[in-house]
Amino acid sequence: MSAVTQPAAGPVSVPVLELYLTERLDLGCLAPVRAALDAAVRLCPDRLVLDMARCAAIDAAGVALLLDVHRQLVRVGARLTLRAPTPRLRRILRISRVDQVLHVVPEEAPAAGRPVERSGGAW
């Protein structure tokens, strides 16, 4: 009889994980977005970047979700970055003072040699 050994099941870790939000971030769309963000957090990224350039609107439920994801990542030493929110979203984040808690950045240039692809993967 021979023993079969399997590699230890440890957490997967990635340096940067990017997700593109192409729909509204409100109560009506929250369930699939939460599922995608939960799956992303389980990958243990050092930095989770949520591109919000195509997100038309956000409500209190969406803000609460972002804060929850932020808290989860901070607990493990990681960071949530909101990239390229529209002027309307930036205003909402500023009025609610969430921009003082979350890391919000304008559109970043892609890394050299990295293609920019914005199609597919919408939720």
Automatic annotation (TrEMBL):
Gene3D superfamilies: STAS domain
PROSITE patterns according to UniProt: STAS
Domain STAS per the UniProt entry, residue ranges: 16-102
Pfam families: STAS_2
Source taxon at top rank: Bacteria
Family annotation (InterPro entries): MlaB-like_STAS, STAS_dom, STAS_dom_sf
Signal sequence coordinates: none
Descriptive protein name: STAS domain-containing protein
